[in-house]
User: Which sequence fits this backbone?
């Protein structure tokens, strides 16, 4: 029997969400969203779980259900920057594997957290690991809110885009097209390095932070998720769907 992969989980949770302010605290079936995410993390084999926030109310709620909270700056542009502050504050070892479990991932299977951590552990030549799932409809293929990813024979990401990739000149849904699942694993040392890299034009154009990794020569491992992903809560419609 193989030994479990050692990793920690950081859950970045900010209050000032653009489309759904305070969503970490919104009630779903009698619990705040952030508690659902924490319970997912607690069911993994992670050795440490931290909730990283800049908001006192989120911190208080998280403390009430037994989470370890790390207070962070309110100046961060992204969850990745917030996690990098946690890594620095806790003086984590450079080789420590960190899974970024976003605070709005409702119903994400535990298996995906384990999968992405294992993939990074088993690919020491890559800086990040992430997941994807097949796109099954033409509407999703053309939807700019659904990020697409293409990768090579070695499961190394070639590009991420909000545009339909690979493009089909006929206009139909191509075979083997994939939606990116926003679950990441990093090594602590690279995470610190990444957050000091300047934002590149590709990242600004697509509004996709992971393109900074590719632009600077980093490698991202991409694998098809072993289970269906949960529901990311970004809009009122997502919230209503989760409550149902």
Assistant:
């Amino acid at each position: 029997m193989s030994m479990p992969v050692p990793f920690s989980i950081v859950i970045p949770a900010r209050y000032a969400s653009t489309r759904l302010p305070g969503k970490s605290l919104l009630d779903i079936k009698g619990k705040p969203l952030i508690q659902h995410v924490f319970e997912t993390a607690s069911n993994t084999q992670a050795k440490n779980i931290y909730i990283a926030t800049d908001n006192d109310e989120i911190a208080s709620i998280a403390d009430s259900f037994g989470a370890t909270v790390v207070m962070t700056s309110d100046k961060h542009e992204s969850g990745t920057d917030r996690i990098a502050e946690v890594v620095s504050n806790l003086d984590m070892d450079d080789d420590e594997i960190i899974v970024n479990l976003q605070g709005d991932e409702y119903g994400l299977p535990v298996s995906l957290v384990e999968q992405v951590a294992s993939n990074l552990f088993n690919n020491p030549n890559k800086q990040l690991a992430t997941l994807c799932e097949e796109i099954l409809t033409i509407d999703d293929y053309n939807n700019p809110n659904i990020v697409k990813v293409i990768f090579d024979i070695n499961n190394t990401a070639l590009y991420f885009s909000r545009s339909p990739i690979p493009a089909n000149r006929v206009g139909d849904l191509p075979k083997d097209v994939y939606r990116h699942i926003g679950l990441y694993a990093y090594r602590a040392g690279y995470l610190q390095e990444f957050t000091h890299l300047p934002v590149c034009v590709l990242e600004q154009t697509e509004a996709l932070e992971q393109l900074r990794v590719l632009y600077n020569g980093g490698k991202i491992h991409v694998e098809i998720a072993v289970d269906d992903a949960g529901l990311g809560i970004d809009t009122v419609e997502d919230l209503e769907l989760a409550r149902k």
In short: The CA atoms of residues 87 and 128 lie 16 Å apart. The first strand starts at residue 8 and ends at 13.
